[in-house]
């Protein structure tokens, strides 16, 4: 009986560990046709992947789906670990508010990050943006205790622009030179950031 109990406990821990090691990637599609990723689309994608809305996941918003905006509160409170949105131009109010597990964000075409977009995202450690510094203010990262812990990957020629910004200048800015072909799944080609479809 004791041996069986030990075996069951070990199996439970093995399954739990394996589940954590294999965090699934969810593709978020813009099914509403309005260029904006909405909460309903995020929830539908999670469910379609066979997950609960409380499960951990990586997110990809694929190029060619027409999505340009991450809508208000669309990921709020979700257990998203990373997100790649190659064509996303705007992250709106509270898009990722209270995403306490969000570690990595790749948005090379983002031009605007609005109020409380990353509120309380204290696990955020890596942010990749493009050559144009997005318009934003301090409230976009409210609740993030230490912006200097965030590694900000940007094209080398834009480092000075980001460094002069009151918000992004507080981050650990890393310039990606043109001669570099890739950095953490972000490829560089002729000064453009090309995103590979892996988180």
Topology (elements, then pairings):
Blueprint: H1 2-21, E1 25-27, E2 36-37, H2 39-48, E3 57-61, E4 69-70, E5 80-85, E6 90-91, E7 104-107, E8 112-113, E9 126-129, E10 151-155, H3 159-163, E11 172-176, E12 182-183, E13 186-189, E14 192-195
Parallel strand pairs: 1-3, 2-4, 3-5, 4-6, 5-7, 6-8, 7-9, 9-10, 10-11
Antiparallel strand pairs: 12-13, 13-14
CATH class: Alpha Beta
Write down the overall mean pLDDT.
Answer: 85
Helical segment tally? Answer: 3
- Tell me the radius of gyration: 18 Å
- Summarize the helix and strand pattern as letters: HEEHEEEEEEEEHEEEE
Q: Which geometry do the CA atoms define? A: globular
- Assembly form of the protein: single chain
Quick description:
The chain has 199 residues and is an alpha/beta fold. 18% of the residues lie in helices and 25% in strands.
